[in-house]
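Notes from hallway chat w/ T.B., transcribed later so I don't forget. T.B. wanted the structure written out for a chain they're using in a teaching module, and asked if we could keep both sequence and structure tokens in one place. Agreed to drop them here.
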Amino acid sequence: MMRRWLATAFGVTLALFGAIAAIAMAGDVFAIFGTRLVPHNLGPLELRLTTNGDRVLKGLEYFRRTKPLDVVFLGSSRAVFGFDPHTPTMSGLNAYNAGLNGSHSNEAATILTAIAAREPKVAHVIWAIDFEEFFREEAAPADLNESVFGGASPWRGRTMHTLSWEALRKTIGGVLGKQAFYIDTDGFYHYALQDKKNLIGGEDFWELPSMRAWFPSYMFLPRDSYADLLSTRLKRIVDALKAARAKGVAVDIVLPPVHVSRRAMFDLLGFQQRFRDWKKALAATVEDAAKGEGARVRAFDFSEVGPVALDVFQRGGPLDRSPYFFEVLHFRPSVGDMIVARLLDRPWPASIPPFGAPLSETTSDARLSADEAQVAIWEKRNPELIARIRAIIASFEKLKPK
């Protein structure tokens, strides 16, 4: 009797897992099996859903490739939304966007080391590094260790996205059209294709879209750990760059642009000098990593205040208010194209002024002072916006642990 009950329970369990696996593979909403019955395409591009931090999926997506890659993009959500492998500027290049939401330089260093050590071969990596990353918590997101990037078996990720409740829920939701397919299998997030409810409108102040929503609350930690994080993260960057160079992977470190109002926020927080010192420290780090034999390593600065950063936001939705930014923090693919054109000597739009310079040039005292002066000029010309930024800062300061 007991044996029959156990056999029945085992059979029912096995059938249940088989049904879940069949549903997951038939839907294949994460595009990891190639078994999807109902395609979701944007022209020639296959689209998929995301789940958790997307690290497991992107690891599977990346390492199933067999052709050598010309360019891989690394960084946070700013890289994810800002570098589109399919624009005319990228024509003829085999590229992948390995950027991850909420990422920081330690995690990107792990990913760079992993992709340099394994197939497919990579010729060039463009790695966007933000000043704000150096204030964020040290621990990498948990799902990095579950991904191929973190050293886990790809079968772990495949099983997790076949038999889990999350996979079943996402599959059913995706098949029923309750979730938007907006990420392509080259790693790029098509911002405009997201569920409209996820597009942050920044309606509080249309002149400063999402300043409050994207405010870096991690700058208000009870203990100022920036100095400790600076040294450890710079060392990780050096180690990763040297590992990449040894494998013949050229790397360009990029300081991406933010809207000038974000730079004003740094100033009002009292971080202007720290931002200056950080740029100098990063320049010295890249110089150190570039010594000796190996592939080329460079650093370029696109964070100076110029025509892009000074763009004035207009009234309108998330896709209408600026040709350069979705909001004060995330730049659009139009800016990503300018960065790629500058780094890879691709065709440059005639209507766009020159943009970006080597970090070794922009970290001279004279250049840094001139850049800070541009921030001060904007602050003087926009007293009402400065008052609003101060108010936002004050609202977060109230939440700071005593």
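Follow-up for T.B.: The two ends are 64 Å apart (CA to CA). Might be a good example for the class.
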